[in-house]
Write a structure and sequence with these properties.
The chain has 241 residues and is an alpha/beta fold. The chain contains 10 helices and 8 strands. It has 2 domains: 3-14 and 89-234, Rossmann fold, CATH 3.40.50.1000; 17-82. The chain has helices at 17-31, 38-44, 49-56, 65-82, 93-102, 115-126, 148-157, 171-179, 194-199, 209-229; strands spanning 3-7, 14-15, 88-89, 105-114, 133-137, 164-168, 183-187, 204-206.
Length: 241
């Protein structure tokens, strides 16, 4: 019986904020706008690059689609120049991932960051063999918290949604888990507070990467017990087929 874990990228596996700040402020400078602080940008992320760009623009133009699209194109070009300069994996994450692989979890990544950046960052920080499937934002997929991409990643891992765990640092990730009928682990070291993650329905909070392992194994034990008792935390539609 296969079990899977799907990880968010930004604020969960890696600290990407310095490079995001560089990309956004380069875009704003080109357009003649004032730069944003890291604190401001922390409040703008998690909903994809277009929303990050829109919220980073001056309030007066945040509803102007032409300006937003032009700014987005510039941001992608500028971020492509710097996205791997300061981005780093959080301490202990790589080691925790290796233990999870030894425990026979299928590992995936799902991010609202554009797909080309996600794959490059993952390969650079963790190598090509750590994850079984990696996906960023694609044109044919709605963004998190819509469950479509999460259930697609689970399918690529060969795991039912009811046997998947979603690990993330944001309210968006916790809502994605809930929408996709997955258990959730919120991480305390990311870009949102543990209190918010708990409020948004996180099943567990990990204070360290090793606690991801502990919580994941607990999820498996609960899942097996529920199967034995003939019930699931949430009913996976594929279980009815």
């Amino acid at each position: 019986m296969a079990y899977g874990i799907i990880f968010d990228l930004d604020g969960t596996l890696a600290d990407t904020m310095d490079d995001i700040k560089t990309g956004v402020n380069s875009m704003l400078a080109i357009l003649g706008y004032e730069p944003r602080t890291k604190f401001e940008l922390l409040n703008f992320i998690n909903n994809g690059s277009r929303e990050l760009v829109r919220r980073s623009l001056p309030t007066a133009v945040q509803t102007e689609d032409f300006i937003i699209e032009s700014a987005l194109n510039i941001y992608v070009q500028e971020y492509a120049k710097c996205f791997c300069e300061k981005t780093r994996a959080y301490n202990g994450i790589y080691e925790a991932l290796q233990v999870l692989k030894q425990e026979n979890f299928k590992l995936g990544v799902l991010s609202n960051k554009p797909d080309q950046f996600v794959n490059t960052i993952i390969n650079k920080l963790f190598g090509a063999e750590t994850f079984d499937f990696v996906m960023g934002q694609r044109d044919n997929m709605p963004r998190k918290p819509d469950p479509t991409a999460a259930t697609y990643v689970a399918k690529q891992l060969g795991v039912k949604s009811s046997r998947c765990i979603f690990v993330g640092d944001s309210d968006v990730d916790m809502r994605t888990a809930d929408n996709a009928d997955m258990r959730s682990i919120g991480v305390s070291w990311g870009y949102r507070s543990p209190e918010l993650l708990t409020e948004m329905g996180a099943d567990y909070i990990a204070e360290t990467p090793n606690q991801i392992i502990e919580h994941a194994l607990e999820c498996v034990r609960i899942s097996k017990l529920e199967k034995k008792l003939g019930k699931n935390k949430k009913q996976d539609p594929s279980d009815q087929q």
